[in-house]
Amino acid sequence: MAPTHDVLVIGGGAAGLMTALTAGQRGLRVLVVEHANKVGKKILMSGGGRCNFTNAGTTPANFLSANPHFCKSALARYTPAHFIDMVERHRIAYHEKELGQLFCDVSSKLIVTMLVDECLAAGVRIETGCSVQQVEQADGVFRLDTSLGRFAAPSLVVATGGLSIPSMGATGFGYELARQFGHDVLPTRAGLVPLTLSGKHQERLADLSGVSFPVEARCGKVRFRNFMLLTHRGVSGPSILQISSYWQPGDDLRLDLLPDRDALDWLEAQQRQRPDAELKTVLSDALPRRFAQRLCEVWLPNRPMKQFNAPQLKEAAALLADWPLVASGTEGYRTAEVTLGGVDTDGVSSSTMMSRHVPGLFFVGEVLDVTGWLGGYNFQWAWASGHAAGMAV
Ligand SMILES: Cc1cc2nc3c(=O)[nH]c(=O)nc-3n(C[C@H](O)[C@H](O)[C@H](O)COP(=O)(O)OP(=O)(O)OC[C@H]3O[C@@H](n4cnc5c(N)ncnc54)[C@H](O)[C@@H]3O)c2cc1C
């Protein structure tokens, strides 16, 4: 079959649209095939509807991958400043929330509109509600059998994303395609996801659902300082979502409940200043009252500060600085923001995103084994890898 296009992109999400507009701007005939009824659904729901579209401080250290070097080249060539340029050209107002996280002032819709407008201006054809039945390659041409007919091109870009939020169109199709063409797929699991507790660990905290406070979450050598939120089923909030990408069932997870102070120094000072106050009253000054109370019902002895001797105070301080959180699992793909693992980067060129096994086949975005932290990093990877492929197809 003769080529109908120069480039076929499967998946009209962040990375697919970025690849398409970049290739289209180079004068190539590009078709984006999206099986959902509209493109960019995850962009629309991202950042609470305001899309945290990049992180101004993005570095390769903000990503997890079996090969931590893989993301470097693409991230260096398409930086947050490049994407911000496009956002500003489209007069989309934005602001920095915290830690370099850039959000739209008004709505994520503006980012999708911007990407689609750039695609259309570059002559890209976008087909939604189009499912791919089969992919074949012969004589250097990829042929796609879809619900809208057959398409063929010398370049095929797999931009189907990860497994999180199946209700938004997520499928394992990209992984199947990768395997079909001889690629390894590393085991996948949910990342940036709330953790669940079970048994007594859940019962002790379940009625505190909604309580939130800053902690430092630690797993191995990794630590994140931010808010934790207690939920009906477990724990969430930015510090927990971040650490969830590093945690696996059975791993030791610890929380510093007083991340901004030295627990022992502080307890000693409290003992001097208010010897008759009970521990739970003292702790209520640093933690939400109900959580402080629960700590003193289950984990710590509640008595007037003057009744703690030095070793007992030290023990209490050690628990507050290194509180064990016994998680049983995660909420899974249903609520996860990202998928860890995916197409093994060993089989893919880090500068072009092209397969090392099959010339003309590209993988971009989350389908690859590259996963960012919470805070705009995942979109920056989608833009950067999409741009790299769009320049190379
Ligand atoms: C609730 C939520 C909030 C998020 N917020 C942020 C945030 O604020 N900042 C940030 O950086 N990251 C955020 N993320 C992560 C970010 O959305 C993803 O990392 C990013 O969208 C990945 O881009 P992608 O193009 O690789 O995949 P996606 O954006 O998921 O796009 C893949 C596309 O492929 C389509 N597709 C799948 N299978 C097929 C098939 N067989 N045929 C045709 N089409 C197919 C899908 O329908 C989808 O449109 C969030 C994720 C979630 C779930």
Automatic annotation (TrEMBL):
Domain RsdA/BaiN/AoA(So)-like insert: 189-338
Signal peptide start and end residues: none
InterPro entries given in the database record: BaiN-like, BaiN-like_dom_sf, FAD/NAD-bd_sf, RsdA/BaiN/AoA(So)-like_dom, RsdA/BaiN/AoA(So)_Rossmann
SUPFAM superfamilies to which the protein is assigned, alphabetical: FAD/NAD(P)-binding domain, HI0933 insert domain-like
Segments forming domain RsdA/BaiN/AoA(So)-like Rossmann fold-like: 5-391
Domain of life where this protein originates: Bacteria
Keywords: FAD, Flavoprotein
The protein's required cofactors: FAD
Protein's recorded name: NAD(P)/FAD-dependent oxidoreductase
Organism: Pseudoxanthomonas mexicana
